[in-house]
Amino acid sequence: MNNLVEVARLSDIRPGQMLRVVHGGHAYLLANVDGEILAADDTCTHEDAPLSIGALHGDCVTCSLHGAIFNLRSGAPVEEPATEPLQTYAVELRDGTICIALPDAG
Ligand code: FES
User: Which of 15, 61, 70, 84 is the most buried (most CB within 10 A)?
Assistant: First the structure.
């Protein structure tokens, strides 16, 4: 089961921009890719840098610390040094509010 959580307004992120949101002490990355919102963990799987301060190119994000690149649709690392995938999350828009589907805690 998934738990839909409201994390931001669609108007908070312009196309081509990213936003870090924290829910329950966990940091998530939201990216606006040509009007489509993608969500993933904000913490690089290499050495824990926040990806939201990196660079967004299409649906990929480049980590600002050592340059690893992740595909935000699949979470797959497409450029080293990161080798572990990034957790991604399904996104739902509800009346201009961005909701992400988190696994149920229980
Ligand atoms: S912390 Fe992201 S590439 Fe090293």
Answer: 70
pLDDT digits (tens, 9 = 90+) for 42-83: 999 999 999 999 999 999 999 999 999 999 999 999 999 999
For ligand 1, the distance from its centroid to the CA atom of residue 1, given in whole angstroms, is: 31
Q: What is the pTM of this model?
A: 0.94
Class of domain 2-103: mainly beta
pLDDT at position 104 is: 76
What is the C-alpha separation between 103 and 18, in angstroms, rounded? 22
Those residues whose C-beta lies under 8 Å from the C-beta of residue 87, and which sit 6 or more positions away, are 40, 41, 75
CA of 26 to the centre of ligand 1 (A): 18
